[in-house]
Amino acid sequence: xxxxxxxxxxxxxxxxxxxxxxxxxxxxxxxxxxxxxxxxxxxxxxxxxxxxxxxxxxxxxxxxxxxxxxxxxxxxxxxxxxxxxxxxxxxxxxxxxxxxxxxxxxxxxxxxxxxxxxxxxxxxxxxxxxxxxxxxxxxxxxxxxxxxxxxxxxxxxxxxxxxxxxxxxxxxxxxxxxxxxxxxxxxxxxxxxxxxxxxxxxxxxxxxxxxxxxxxxxxxxxxxxxxxxxxxxxxxxxxxxxxxxxxxxxxx
Length: 252
Hints:
The protein is an alpha+beta fold. The protein contains seven helices and eleven strands. Strands 2, 3, 4, 5, 6 and 9 form a six-stranded antiparallel beta sheet that branches. α1 runs antiparallel to α2 and α6 packs antiparallel against α7. The mean pLDDT is about 95.
């Protein structure tokens, strides 16, 4: 399975700093988005630590025997376990940075990452940055937000429409740097030719409805750079209240 990818980030129209970070690593078939938080540029540091740590782990475990200092989940493929272990390692690196520098205390970051391997696309995430699959003209959400409002929707206390407008919609319940141990959610998708995977921060999904995201991606079939730019533009045209990042990965 071959893939092509493109990523783009923008500070938005309301923020002074871009605390998002992303990675497009074609050789390793690794792609990710991280949305930092913490103020005083600490969010930028947290998201960059996540990107660098996950990339380093995936690249260094490519050829080894699969032994690393994290539990191995037999329900998932080795590639998915590598990705989950990389996310856990990133959490440790964020915590380590805070221990070394008191000015960074309280920082954290979301992360959503995908790794393509032998026809399977593994996705792991922590927080409310999302992954979507666009296949045969349909958009489906791969990830569930680790957020207060999503938990309320799951419990039947809020509708999806109410959650989208709720004043606590940005409160996340899981993030790298938020606890000594973090549990990423993971999934595996058997890829088909022409699939498009979208990884994005909530700066996109908080501003642009999923129907519009689907329209933009499908209208620019094959032109991932143009599609990413139009997704960013759509978020900014609707107010650009947050940093916005999109990474598109297409199987070819």
